[in-house]
Structures are given as structure tokens and as C-alpha cells.
């Protein structure tokens, strides 16, 4: 299942708060179920509001769902 990601702002410096936006697209011919999007706790982003993941509702064929997560960039991230 393809996932497109966009970031705002485009350049994220250490300690900055940013918004990660994921578009989940079902390109199959059956409903997609049990989908979740998450920020890896060991990665370079920390959830800004305590929400590290989001559950995506069941997606019918061709459906798109957008997930937005607010994050803080780790202090050792390279802009």
C-alpha cells in the first residue's frame, strides 16, 4: 500500500516542531483493513502531543486517507 509523506516546514532543524502528513492510498481491488501509521520511538522524531500513531479506517479500493502527526525533531537530526 503506497504511502506519500510530506513535511511542514520543508527544512526541519534540531528541536523544531513539525507536522508530518501521510497519505495512505489503497491501490488494490479489495478493502484494506488494520492499517496504522506510526512515528518510530527510536527515530529522529518525538511525538509533540503524545500521539505517536494513528489508526486508519478501512479503505475501499482506490480510497485515500490522510494522517497528520505533530512531532519534535531530535537534537541530533541533520537539517
Strand order of the largest sheet: 1-2-6-4
Distance between the termini: 28 Å
Q: Strand portion, in percent? A: over 45%
> Mean pLDDT across all residues, rounded?
86
Compute the number of strand runs. 6
Q: What does the largest sheet look like? A: 4 strands, antiparallel
Strand pairing plus helix content: what structural class? mainly beta
Which shape, going by the Cα principal axes? elongated
Helices, by number, come to: 0
SSE string? EEEEEE
Flag low-confidence runs: none
Task: Please characterize this protein's 3D structure.
This protein has 79 residues and is mainly beta. Helices cover 0% and strands 46% of the residues. It is built from no helices and 6 strands. The strands form 2 sheets. It has a 4-stranded antiparallel sheet with strand order 1-2-6-4, with no helix packed on it. A hairpin with an 8-residue loop joins strand 1 and strand 2. 11% of the residues are buried. The mean pLDDT is 86.
Features:
elongated, 79 residues, two-stranded antiparallel sheet, mainly beta
How does the SSE layout of this entry go?
Layout: E1 3-8, E2 17-25, E3 35-38, E4 45-47, E5 53-56, E6 64-73
Antiparallel strand pairs: 1-2, 2-6, 3-5, 4-6
Can I get a quick summary?
This protein is mainly beta and 79 residues long. 0% of the residues lie in helices and 46% in strands.
Amino acid at each position: 500500500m503506497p504511502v506519500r509523506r510530506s513535511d511542514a516546514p520543508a527544512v526541519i532543524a534540531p528541536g523544531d516542531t513539525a507536522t508530518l502528513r501521510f497519505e495512505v492510498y489503497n491501490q488494490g481491488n479489495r478493502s484494506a483493513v488494520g492499517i496504522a501509521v506510526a512515528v518510530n520511538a527510536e527515530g529522529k522524531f518525538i511525538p509533540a502531543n503524545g500521539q505517536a500513531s494513528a489508526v486508519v479506517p478501512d479503505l475501499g479500493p482506490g480510497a485515500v486517507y490522510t494522517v497528520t502527526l505533530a512531532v519534535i525533531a531530535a537534537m541530533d537530526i541533520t537539517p
